[in-house]
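I had to read the description of the data format several times before I understood it. For illustration, here is how one protein appears when written out as sequence plus structure tokens:
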Amino acid sequence: MNDEVLTLEETAHFLKVSDATVYQLARSGALPARKVGREWRFVRSRLMAWLEQGGEEMEGKVIRDEFGGEYMVENGQEKVALWLPMSREEKRRLLEKAAQEGWSFSEKVMALARELMADKPA
């Protein structure tokens, strides 16, 4: 039956991936799923369509990585989210300042991170 409803564990077995991978993809919205109460449910025919599309639904979706952070793919380029210890108000002020002065907050953070990594012994 093509419209069979699968549990998270059955979906993991069907896709031949871990339960954690299915959970992360469902939670991020990358995998077609519905939450019923506290449990995730998947329709086999929608999973097949998703597979046939090559997982294109993942483009632009936030996905959890193995390090506990998040990333997304935009225009084929992977972008990671860094957890910075700042309030949303601080972030808002920094983004406004960057826009006014014509620089990219993300590029400054990445330049600093790369500089710090270059200074560390391998």
Summary: The two ends are 54 Å apart (CA to CA).
